[in-house]
Amino acid sequence: MDGHPEQDALIWVGDDLVATRRLSWAELDAEARAIAARLSELCPPGSRALLLYPPVEFIVAFLGCLYAGVVAVPAPLPGRYPHERRRVRGIAADADVSVVLTDSANAGTVREWAHAEGINHLPVLATDEDHFGDASRWAAPPADHDTIALLQYTSGSTGDPKGVVVTHGNLLVNAHTMITALEIPADTRFGGWAPHYHDMGLMAQTLPALFLGTTCVLMSATTFLKRPHQWLAMIDRYDIGWSAAPNFGYDLCCRRVTDEQLAGLDLSRWRYAVNGSEPVHVATINAFAERFAPAGFRPETACPCYGLAESTVFVSGTGSRPPKTTMIDPEHLAQNDFVPSVNGRALAGNGAAPLSDVRVVDPVTRQVLPEGKVGEIWLRGPSVAQGYWRKPEATARTFQAETACGDSGFLRTGDLGTVHDGDIYITGRLKDMMIVRGRNLYPQDIEHELRAQHPELGNVGAVFTVDTELVVTHEVQGRQDEADLRDLAQRMKQTVAREFGVQVGGLALLRRGGVRRTTSGKVMRSQMRELFLQSDLDAEYQA
């Protein structure tokens, strides 16, 4: 900051891409100091503060917490749906927060939520009010690498939220590792729409920009979901070199950006199109590169990455080199063998994992597996978080795993995959893997294949098993009559049988919004399974 205090640190853009809020480095520092000074009067270091904000004000308050030695607890603003409001209350209760921080525009709504949820004893403070705190009274608290910086709550159930304990050291090491491993130039502008209360938006988008001392440009996820073109237009207009999104974001652009919108884009300066947070599909990488090549998008810009909140965020990435693609024999993969083939399932490599000790482990026997076998990815290294907040048993199970040969201190990621030619490959989630007639199948593969072959489908589906039967639920686009839906359902069943060699036992077609998702957009397959079992899907068509 000392070298360029008047340079933009944060820019917030509205629906029309006009900058509605700018903060220079000097302004950001002053506002963070003012918040920290006030917090220091209210809370001792180590107290927890629940942060309920729109993006830019959130970043200011987050830094204010770090400056005060107060543990930040990011969460989404309480939504209109009861389960969303209960989840935020669950986070507040689990973290045992001392104060709720928000902005003046949302303070009334947050106070109503706190009253309705029975936690109105917590003070709700609007940190953007005039004279909230006196920056000149700020004094740096004692802190080191082991001091807790934030509790990052994962997308778990409402009744059992898990807060990942992330220290100052975790944040610094992870940002430095990502920047150096991916060779990100110091003048790179960051930006995107990923929600700030999730690890991708905060720790893979905003904090690396602050670490480098460059500019971060932010837009709301709602703007992107309504008009995906605006994300790409923002990258063009604000000269953004690094932007991250889950795989579905790139899919959405391929499906929704028109030829006319494409003609007005220049994506030639975009250097890192980071794809992570959910399974990366080679078909999406290729489709996006082909669709936006006329706008100057280069194939090597695609940057598949692997990460998770329990390892702060970043584990591995491909950087500026073209992503590797390996064709895998699906029959062997169904038996947990990673066998390259001329034809088969295409998998994207996620780069190497600097500073992480990686093992591929049988999740049942805990035997370390040899090269060429698929197992659970285990990690050990300085980016791995300290555990789950006040959950010693869950922490021991997940963060203190020991292999069969006695090698200890590993993080169990819950992700299945392998290491091949130095790259981490992810094949699916352990909890999502389905065993159908002795074959291991991954729901994301089936969902993606159905969307690729049936354009009538929407952007999200959920595949799961009930006993030994495969069940497909998926949203459809627009309104279709019963005959069309019946025909679509039949063709979808044929696709699954042809591509995956299994029969569909149940199928439900839903209107938009019918598939339940977390606040970060991840499909809640277990909840969809329960709704199916309870005959509570409200399907447009069911077979």
User: What is the CATH superfamily of the largest domain?
Assistant: ANL, N-terminal domain
What's the CATH first level of the largest domain?
A: Alpha Beta
* Strand segment count: 26
Strand content: 15-25%
Total individual domains:
3
Largest sheet: 4 strands, mixed
What is the overall silhouette?
Answer: globular
Overall mean pLDDT stands at 92
Helix content: 25-40%
Number of helices: 16
CATH-assigned fold name of the largest domain: Rossmann fold
CATH architectural designation of the largest domain: 3-Layer(aba) Sandwich
Distance between the termini: 61 Å
Poorly predicted segments: none
Features:
Rossmann fold; alpha/beta; adenylyltransferase activity; four-stranded parallel sheet; long-chain fatty acid-CoA ligase activity; GMP Synthetase, Chain A, domain 3; 16 helices; 543 residues
Condensed summary:
The chain has 543 residues and is an alpha/beta fold. It has 16 helices and 26 strands. It comes from uncultured bacterium esnapd4.
Walkthrough of the structure:
- The chain has 543 residues and is an alpha/beta fold.
- It has 3 domains: 25-143, Rossmann fold (3-Layer(aba) Sandwich), CATH 3.40.50; 204-427, Rossmann fold (3-Layer(aba) Sandwich), CATH 3.40.50; 434-542, 2-Layer Sandwich (GMP Synthetase, Chain A, domain 3).
- It is 33% helix and 24% strand.
- The strands form 8 sheets. A 4-stranded mixed sheet has the order 2-1-10-9, sandwiched between helices.
- The N and C termini lie far apart (61 Å).
